[in-house]
Amino acid sequence: MAEQLAYAIITPYSLYKSRTGGILARLIARTRLELVGARMFAPSANLVKEYAQAIVSANDPQDRRVQELLRDYIAQNLNPDPKAGRRRRVMMLLFKGEDAVRTLRSVVGNLGSDRRGGETIRDTYGDMILDDNGNVRYFEPAVLAPPNAEEAELKLKLWARYSDTDGGVVENTIAYAPGDKVQRTLVLIKPDNFRFPTGRPGNVIDFFSRTGLYIVGIKLHRMSVSQAMEFYGPVRDVLRTKLKDVVAKQGKEALEKVLGFQIPDRDTKQLGELLGPLYGDNQFDNIVRFMSGRAPSECSPEQLSAPGSERCIALVYEGVEAVSKIRDVLGPTDPSKAPPGSIRREFGSTIMVNAAHASDSEANAQREMGIVKVAENTFRLEVDSFFKK
Question: Would you give the DSSP letter of residue 132?
Fold first, then answer.
C-alpha cells in the first residue's frame, strides 16, 4: 500500500471546549500513523469559501446530504465572526503512512444520527441531532478529514496555499475583559512522549487544558543541536556549579572504594571544584542529545544546524497569567517532587525525562519562542515536498 499524507482539522468548537488533547491522543494512538506536521490557522473568508466549495464532491462516497451539512457548517463556523470581527481558530494536523487517509478517516468516523457508542472521535465529540421530522437541529463534526486520497491532496494544497497568510501564531482570536493581564507562553511536549505511537502527547495537552488557556500556535519541531544548545544555554552554568557537591560525594565514594583510604573533607571539596564543571558539561550534553538526538561533540559543523532526529510539539498558550498557570499544572522539574495530578508526576520519570517544558517567565517565553520559531511554516514545506509541487 502506498504512503499517503492525510489531515485532520480540529474545529473551532472542539478547540474552544479544550478537546484538542483527547482528539490528538486518539489520532496518534489508534491510527499509529506518524504525526509529521501541525499548524494553527485563523482562516480568512477567501480560504473558507474555497474550502467549503470543495467539500461537495462526486469523489466523496459520503451521503450528499452530509456533504452539504459540512459545507454549510464550514461556511458558518470557520468564517471570521461577523459580530466580533475576529477570526476563528482551527488546528491542522498532518499524518503520514501507508493507507493514511482511510486509516485516519476510520478513527475520525462518519456522521449520522444513529450513533450507538463512543468508538470514533465523532462518536465521542461530534453531534448530529434531528427533530421528529428528520430535520437537523444541531450539527458539530468535531474534526474535519478527507474521504479519500484525491480529496486529501486537493484540500491540503488549498490550505498550504493560504498557510502563510492565514496560519502561524494567530492574533486577535480571543476576547478578553478590559484590564486582563494577557500573556503568551511556550510549552514543549518532549521527545520521551514520541518513542512509539501513544496517546501521551494528547494526554499531556489534555492536562494543560485545565488552565482554561487558549492554544494560538502549534508546530511539530525537530530541534537542531545548535537550537538545543541555545535553548538550554542558561542551564549550563547552573549545572556546572549546582552539581559540585553531588559529584564531590560520588567521586569521594568511588575513589575511596578503589584506592582503599579515606579522602579528607577539604580534598573532597577540591574534588568537586575540579570535577563539577566537567560533570555539568556532561549533563548539558545529555540534555542536548535527549532533545535533538545528538550531543555537540558528535556533530560535524554542518550537522549542528540540521533538524534533529527527535520530535517534540511546540505550543503557544495565550490567556490571563498564562506563565504561572502552565507552570502550576506542569509541576517542578523533578517528577519525584511534583504534586499528584501534575503533568510531571503523572508522565515524568527523571529530571531530564519529565514529559514537558514550559517557560518560567514572559521574558524567557519570548526568548524560547524566538529559538523554536513556532510560526515557521513547516506545514507548507511538508505538503509541497510530499506532492512535489
Answer: T
- CA end-to-end span of the chain: 22
Q: pLDDT digit string (tens) for 209-245?
A: 999 999 999 999 999 999 999 999 999 888 888 878 8
In contact, 240 and 219? CB cutoff 8 Å: no
Listed residue (306, 310, 326, 329) closest to 318, CA to CA: 326
Q: Which CATH code for domain 1-168+374-389?
A: 3.30.70.141
Which residue matches cell numbers 568537586? 272
Q: Which residues of 335-355 are buried (b: 16+ CB within 10 A; e: fewer)?
A: beebeeebbbbbbbeeeeebb
Distance between CA 61 and CA 384 in Å, rounded?
26
Tell me the sheet residues that pair with 90.
41
- For residue 264, the Cα-to-chain-centroid distance in whole angstroms is 51
Give the number of other Cβ atoms within 10 Å of residue 297's Cβ: 10
The string of pLDDT tens digits covering residues 135-149 is 888 999 999 999 999
Rounded CA separation 370/191 (Å): 20
Question: Which three cell numbers mark 6?
Answer: 492525510
Beta carbons of 310 and 298 less than 8 angstroms apart:
no
Give domain limits for the chain: 1-168+374-389, 228-304
Look at residues 373, 385, 365 and name the one whose alpha carbon lies nearest to residue 317: 365
pTM value is 0.93
Provide the phi-psi class of 331: left if phi over 0, else alpha when psi is between -120 and 50, else beta: left
